[in-house]
Design a protein that fits this description.
Layout: E1 5-10, H1 12-16, E2 29-30, E3 33-34, H2 35-38, H3 41-46, H4 48-62, H5 69-76, E4 82-87, H6 93-97, E5 102-104, E6 107-114, E7 121-123, E8 141-145, H7 155-162, E9 167-171, E10 193-196, E11 209-212, H8 216-228
Parallel strand pairs: 1-4, 1-9, 4-5, 9-10, 10-11
Antiparallel strand pairs: 2-3, 6-7, 6-8
Length: about 230
């Protein structure tokens, strides 16, 4: 008998519990930078050295962080379900924990890409990307991140995954960031939705939504109990 498909949409909250800082904690500032300075094409054009340094510090921090019980709980669910994770996070904590199917909507911190040919994507050795590091065509490398104002190439794949969900789980995201938050619109109407968040999102719940008002480290174990007992 085939397993039911469980789709998870994860956001910054689950990473924050591992010590990853998020700009939403601090009025849109990240290490005292306005996000447009460090996470937009305009910011890159204006001061690429600042942008490179900013992501080098994010990468350095990531190498010091470990997955938490929320991440490990989602791996545990693979025993019972076919689990696909769609994450807004640029860290690799889901992969470190052992999740086998992870789609990154907003790019990956440990990867870099060409500034002239976005199909040229590379794994970065270590945490530092320097000015003068180039792709095979000789162009400067940039962080492999979807910046504000850029298209989200993986969204079509994410929509296809959401549309096949037998169970849909939201963890660590306020559902304020689009197009990711819009994925709920593609979940089949009969599919139960579980939202794990200490703060209940401000929208009218449908009859199929169950709220678990906890952080991921507490809420994911509760979800496992609900789904497996």
């Amino acid at each position: 008998m085939s397993k039911k498909k469980l789709v998870v949409l994860s956001g910054a909250g689950i990473s924050a519990e591992s010590g990853i800082k998020t700009f939403r904690d601090n009025n849109g500032l990240w290490e005292n930078h306005d996000v447009t300075e460090v996470a937009s094409p305009q910011g890159w054009a204006k001061d690429p050295h600042l942008v490179l340094d900013f992501y080098n510090q994010r990468r350095k921090q990531l190498y010091e962080c470990q997955p938490n019980n929320g991440h490990y709980g989602l791996v545990e669910l693979e025993k019972y379900f076919e689990v696909s994770i769609i994450t807004q996070n640029i860290d690799d904590l889901h992969e470190q924990a052992g999740s086998s199917d992870v789609l990154h909507l907003h790019g990956e911190l440990k990867k870099v890409r060409s500034t002239t040919d976005e199909s040229l994507v590379y794994d970065l050795e270590g945490w530092e990307l320097k000015w003068g590091d180039t792709c095979e065509k000789g162009s400067q490398l940039r962080p492999h991140i979807v910046w504000f104002g850029e298209a989200v190439p993986a969204i079509e794949t994410a929509i296809e995954i959401a549309a096949r969900a037998d169970i849909f789980v939201v963890v660590g995201t306020s559902l304020n960031v689009y197009p990711a938050a819009g994925l709920l619109n593609y979940v089949p109407s009969a599919t139960p939705i579980y939202i794990i968040d200490p703060h209940q999102p401000a929208f009218t719940p449908s009859k199929n939504i169950t709220f678990i008002q906890e952080k991921g480290t507490e809420g994911v174990p509760q979800l496992i109990n609900l789904l497996t007992n």
